[in-house]
Amino acid sequence: MEKVDFNDNLNKLTQQLPQGVFLTVKDGEKINTMTIGWALSGRIWNENCLLVAVRYSRHTYEMMENTDEFVVSVPKEGVMKKELSFCGTKSGRDFDKFNECNLTPFYVDESNVPLIKECDLHFVCKKVYQQSMEPSLIGADFIHKKYCDKDYHVMYYGQVISTYKND
């Protein structure tokens, strides 16, 4: 793994999001990853940040509440479709996704949360803020399309501590 510049690699993240990327967390000794297709990147408080959204119903939400770190891992374009599908449809409550998908945890000095070694690009993040969605502030069209079951998201702002690329 080699450290790379955050800004030079945002395009790859943005391009891959519609196909999915991995959001990984660790709570105690338990690690879990889920597929996400939404994220925002940019600068806030003069820091490089990623914002990820996790629904209350997800096992990842429970784990995010017990940690200050998360990692976003981006697979190479067109690969890991089976793994992204599994991690996006199965719960970490019921499955060890790393084991089921033959994902290799890879640790770097800056984080207790592992990167997924099979992925090409990784954003190591420190949780600096979170905010629950306020349903009354969501447009009616989005309520109808995305939240008819009232399973809203919590937004987690992560300061990007480091960015890694597989060499």
Describe the structure.
- The protein contains five helices and ten strands, in the order βαββββαβααβββαβ.
- The chain has helices at 10-16, 59-64, 81-89, 97-100, 140-146; strands spanning 2-3, 21-27, 30-36, 39-44, 47-55, 69-74, 105-106, 115-116, 121-132, 153-165.
- The strands form two sheets. Strands 1, 2, 3, 4, 5, 6, 9 and 10 form an eight-stranded antiparallel β-sheet that branches.
- It is globular and about 45 Å long.
Principal-axis shape equals globular
- Give the N-terminus to C-terminus distance in angstroms: 6 Å
Gyration radius, to the nearest Å?
15 Å
CATH topology: Pnp Oxidase, Chain A
Number of domains: 1
What is the percent of helical residues? 10-25%
Largest sheet: 8 strands, antiparallel
Mean pLDDT: 92
For the record, the CATH architecture stands as Roll
Q: Helix tally?
A: 5
Strand content: 35-45%
Please outline the helices and strands:
Layout: E1 2-3, H1 10-16, E2 21-27, E3 30-36, E4 39-44, E5 47-55, H2 59-64, E6 69-74, H3 81-89, H4 97-100, E7 105-106, E8 115-116, E9 121-132, H5 140-146, E10 153-165
Antiparallel strand pairs: 1-10, 2-3, 2-6, 4-5, 5-10, 6-9, 7-8, 9-10
Name the descriptors.
167 residues; alpha+beta; two-stranded antiparallel sheet; 5 helices; 10 strands
How would you summarize this macromolecular structure in one to three sentences?
The protein has 167 residues and is an alpha+beta fold. The chain has helices spanning 10-16, 59-64, 81-89, 97-100, 140-146, and strands spanning 2-3, 21-27, 30-36, 39-44, 47-55, 69-74, 105-106, 115-116, 121-132, 153-165. The strands form 2 sheets. Strands 1, 2, 3, 4, 5, 6, 9 and 10 form an 8-stranded antiparallel sheet that branches. The chain has a two-stranded antiparallel ribbon with strand order 7-8.
